Automatic annotation (TrEMBL):
<comment type="function">
    <text>Pyrophosphatase that catalyzes the hydrolysis of nucleoside triphosphates to their monophosphate derivatives, with a high preference for the non-canonical purine nucleotides XTP (xanthosine triphosphate), dITP (deoxyinosine triphosphate) and ITP. Seems to function as a house-cleaning enzyme that removes non-canonical purine nucleotides from the nucleotide pool, thus preventing their incorporation into DNA/RNA and avoiding chromosomal lesions.</text>
</comment>
<keyword id="KW-0378">Hydrolase</keyword>
<dbReference type="InterPro" id="IPR020922">
    <property type="entry name" value="dITP/XTP_pyrophosphatase"/>
</dbReference>
<dbReference type="InterPro" id="IPR029001">
    <property type="entry name" value="ITPase-like_fam"/>
</dbReference>
<feature type="binding site">
    <location>
        <begin position="180"/>
        <end position="181"/>
    </location>
    <ligand>
        <name>substrate</name>
    </ligand>
</feature>
<feature type="binding site">
    <location>
        <begin position="152"/>
        <end position="155"/>
    </location>
    <ligand>
        <name>substrate</name>
    </ligand>
</feature>
<dbReference type="GO" id="GO:0036222">
    <property type="term" value="F:XTP diphosphatase activity"/>
</dbReference>
<comment type="similarity">
    <text>Belongs to the HAM1 NTPase family.</text>
</comment>
<dbReference type="GO" id="GO:0035870">
    <property type="term" value="F:dITP diphosphatase activity"/>
</dbReference>
<dbReference type="GO" id="GO:0009117">
    <property type="term" value="P:nucleotide metabolic process"/>
</dbReference>
<keyword id="KW-0547">Nucleotide-binding</keyword>
<comment type="subunit">
    <text>Homodimer.</text>
</comment>
<keyword id="KW-0546">Nucleotide metabolism</keyword>
<dbReference type="GO" id="GO:0046872">
    <property type="term" value="F:metal ion binding"/>
</dbReference>
<dbReference type="GO" id="GO:0005829">
    <property type="term" value="C:cytosol"/>
</dbReference>
<dbReference type="Pfam" id="PF01725">
    <property type="entry name" value="Ham1p_like"/>
</dbReference>
<dbReference type="GO" id="GO:0017111">
    <property type="term" value="F:ribonucleoside triphosphate phosphatase activity"/>
</dbReference>
Length: 216
C-alpha cells in the first residue's frame, strides 16, 4: 500500500512541480483540498527552515497524516538578501505574483549587480512533531523585464545563465533538473525508501490510546 503524504501548500505552481518530480514513487500525495477546511498556518518564522517546519508539522498534527511543506523564496544580492522569507508578501500582504514581479523590477531599476539565488527548504513531518528536512539552492541573474510564460512567482525574472533562459522558459522537468526545489526533491527521491521506513517506524499507528476499562 502506498504511504499517504499530505502536501501542505496552497501554491499551484509548487504543487505541479512536486507532483511531477515525485511521480512514480510509492507515495500517495494528497492536496489540502482533499480535506475539509483547516486553519491557515502563520508563516512568521525567521528562516525558510522555520516556516517549512511550521507548515508541515501543523498540517500533520491537524490531519493525522505525514505532511510535506515547501518554504522558498528569492534572495537578491543588491537587496541584502531580500525578499527572502518575505518573497510571497514582497509587494504587500495579498500580493499576486504579478505585483511582486513589478516591485522587484522597480527596486532593481538602477542596480548593476543583479545576482540572485532561489532557496527552498522542504520539511516532512509526522503528527507527533519529528521531521526530516531537505534543502536546495540555485544561482541566477534578475532580468530587466519579465520573459517567458511557464512556471510561477518570480520565474519570468530568474535568468539561468547555464541554459541561457529564464525559469519561465523551461518545462517543469527542465526547471526541476537545476532549480532549488528540484535539488531538494532529488534528495527526497534518492532517499524515498528510507523516508517511508522512517514514517512507518516513527509514526504512531493509533493517535488515541484505546480505553479498555469502564471510566465511571
Ligand atoms: O520556483 C520558484 N519560482 C518562482 N518563484 C518562486 C519559486 N519558489 C519560490 N518562489 C517565490 C514564490 C513566492 O513569492 C515565494 C514562496 O513563498 P512561500 O510562502 O514558500 O509559498 P506560498 O505562500 O506561495 O505557498 P505555501 O506557503 O502555501 O506553500 O517565493
Ligand atoms: Mg506561504
Amino acid at each position: 500500500m502506498k504511504q499517504i503524504i499530505v502536501l501542505a501548500t496552497r501554491n499551484k505552481g509548487k504543487t505541479r512541480e512536486i507532483r511531477e518530480l515525485l511521480k512514480g514513487y510509492p507515495i500517495d500525495i494528497k492536496n489540502l483540498d482533499d480535506f475539509g477546511p483547516i486553519p491557515e498556518v502563520i508563516e512568521d518564522g525567521e528562516t525558510f527552515d522555520d516556516n517549512a517546519y511550521k507548515k508541515a508539522s501543523f498540517t500533520a498534527k491537524i490531519l493525522g497524516y505525514p505532511a510535506m511543506a515547501d518554504d522558498s523564496g528569492l534572495c537578491v544580492e543588491a537587496l541584502d538578501g531580500a525578499p527572502g522569507v518575505y518573497s510571497a508578501r514582497y509587494a504587500g500582504e495579498n500580493a499576486t505574483d504579478a505585483d511582486n514581479v513589478k516591485k522587484m523590477l522597480e527596486e532593481l531599476k538602477d542596480k548593476d549587480n543583479r545576482k540572485a539565488s532561489f532557496k527552498c527548504v522542504i520539511s516532512i513531518a509526522i503528527p507527533t512533531g519529528p521531521a526530516l528536512t531537505y534543502e536546495g539552492e540555485c544561482q541566477g541573474v534578475i532580468t530587466k523585464e519579465a520573459v517567458g510564460d511557464n512556471g510561477f512567482g518570480y520565474d519570468p525574472l530568474f535568468f539561468y545563465p547555464e541554459l541561457n533562459k529564464t525559469f519561465a522558459q523551461l518545462t517543469i522537468q527542465e526547471k526541476g533538473q537545476v532549480s532549488h526545489r528540484g535539488k531538494a526533491l532529488k534528495e527526497i527521491a534518492d532517499e524515498m525508501d528510507k523516508i517511508i521506513d522512517w514514517i512507518d517506524i516513527t509514526m504512531p499507528k493509533f493517535q488515541r490510546a484505546e480505553c479498555k476499562g469502564n471510566n465511571s
